[in-house]
Amino acid sequence: MTAPSIKNFERLRTAVDWSVRQLEVPRRNRVRAIRQFVGSHYSGSGSEKNIPANMLELAVTIYVRQLAARAPRVMATTRVMELRPFAKNLELVLNQVPDEINLGATVRRAVIEALFGVGICKVGLYAGGTPVMGYDPGQPFVDLVSLDDYFCDMSAKSRDGIQFEGNDYWLPFDTAREMYPGAFGEDVKPDDHTVTGENGEARAEGVGVDEGADLYRDKVWVRDVWLPDT
To answer: Could you give phi then psi for residue 120, rounded to 5 degrees?
Structure first.
């Protein structure tokens, strides 16, 4: 890595850290609303008030059924009579993909996220040589990204003007090492599992999971950053 690229990387990391801090308030408000949603009987970190009828949970359930009853379906058609059998076969093949990637469940979770803040999904076609996060090469994927893990350029005036966005996630330690062969792979170390954010803020998974979990296999905390202009 040359000196200019190291300098650019440090500026990018500083900008990302600043944008992450700007999202502290909406993240805190989201966690507070989720505690009310799960109620007082879900866990020790749920709502402090014992409410007999959880109207927030009822409203979310109704909206999810209306907005994401099932995964989107594909309809392929043509005006050419001879091509209609091929269009039908294409439709059948494409409609297998949502079931294979469990798109219906992801869309329902995205709707719930949108009701508590913003619904974000990472969509792509995995083209790597090593399977990551359970994806095979050439397989499409749609992954939910929670507000706790998402960040974007908070200095931009509109979404079209963002210089970066991305998300954080856990990756198996062995998989992370395979992504960086040679000397770089040796530098990859497992991270301590935590349900607390970088700046000590509460995260949504902390509502149902205690801090300091005992892991069966080590994990690494990874950050993906997308630069729209490159």
So the answer is: -125, 135
C-alpha distances out from residue 137 to 83, 92, 124, 172, 207, Å: 30, 22, 11, 18, 35
DSSP codes of every residue in 97-133: HHHHTTHHHHHHHHHHHHHHS--EEEEEE---SS--T
- Contact between 115 and 36 (Cβ < 8 Å): no
Cα torsion through 85, 89, 91, 95, rounded to 10 = 160
Distance CA 167, CA 24 (A): 15
pLDDT (tens place) for every residue of the chain, 230 residues total: 555 588 889 999 999 999 999 999 999 899 888 888 888 767 666 677 777 778 888 999 999 999 998 888 999 999 999 999 999 999 999 999 998 889 999 999 999 999 998 999 999 887 765 555 666 777 888 999 999 999 999 999 998 999 999 999 988 888 888 877 666 667 888 888 887 777 777 787 777 776 767 788 888 899 999 999 88
Angle, CA 101 vertex, CA 35 and CA 149 arms, to 5°: 40
Count other Cβ atoms within 10 Å, centred on residue 227.
12
Q: How far apart are CA 49 and CA 230, in angstroms?
A: 49
Q: CA 195, CA 88: separation in Å to the nearest integer?
A: 47
Report the distance separating Cα 81 and Cα 18, nearest Å. 58
Query: 14 with 150: CB under 8 angstroms?
Result: no
**Secondary structure class of 136 (helix, strand, coil):** coil
